[in-house]
Amino acid sequence: MSKIFIVIPAYNEEKTIAKVIEGLLQENYNNIVIVNDGSADCTSKIVLNYPVYLLTHNINRGQGAALRTGTEFAVKQGADIVIHFDGDGQHQVKEIDDFVEKINQGFDIAIGSRFLSGAKNIPFTKKYLIHKPAILVNWFFSGLKLTDAHNGFRALNRHAAKKIKITQNRMAHNTEIPAEIVKRKLNFTEVPVEVIYTEYGQGFGGGIKIILDLLKQKILN
Amino acid sequence: MNLIQILILIFIAYVIYRLAIKLKKREFSIQVFLLWLIFWIAVGVIVVLPQTTQLVADWLGVGRGVDVVIYISILVLFYIVFRIFARIEKIERDITYLVKDISIDKAEKGKDADPLPSLSSRAKSRDLSDSIE
Question: In this predicted complex, what is the ipTM?
Fold first, then answer.
């Protein structure tokens, strides 16, 4: 039986985090790592009521940084499979099995995609103003064409979790991970997922910020 | 001498005074001090005798002396901005690295969670962990 660790970056998620943790515990995922990324609310307090690990960033460093922390911790704890999961309840616990199955089939990394499952829940504007351009940006910077550029639902085997270096602190890690897949020659696949929208997400401004972060990286490295 | 020249000269005098204080406090080395001193003296010369820039302009094939000063200033400024930009990026990464390591060293477990088996061995294996806490 492989040791599965669920890594959840949490920034001000006091409203949703308890429900997410309960959902995971119900399905017997017992290695849950919450990375509290400098939340100003009661996220930590709530998390400590559950049998989970809590890592605390004293200051907010962004989702990419939180994922890196959680992944490194999971590897140190002997994880065979690391799952990246959202703390706002947009991902579905029952779909974790699909990811684990892919890893057990021998893939190094499995990335969730909303577009493989028919993409029924996605608002029209979001699809054409955010997702489609994002796929192109991803492809341009990483050389890997994914059907869904910004999906935080992923599974990594131990090898991939050790190899992939997330240096992008904020949201550009979504592009950095595909780039690392190419660079480290990892074996990847996509998994259809359904996303439950809680709010509008990053929006167009967030997209611009990601592109700037990526350009910065290109210029400086 | 124009008023602007006098004002700039006063400013330069003040900067050199600050440099001397920093040198005295050993905030930077004599080499760095000399570099800045030469730079500011050069600025002073240009302010008092703007014609001198014409020599450089003729040599470089640029029309007016003042243009040379502006071109070089812009280049230097761009370069400095780039350096600062890169520096900030590095600092950001270093901060993230520290925040990550501190959070892993101080990992907590919630109610009824399995104990953290490797916590003590981790602390031993890393010399820094004590000093961080």
Answer: 0.80
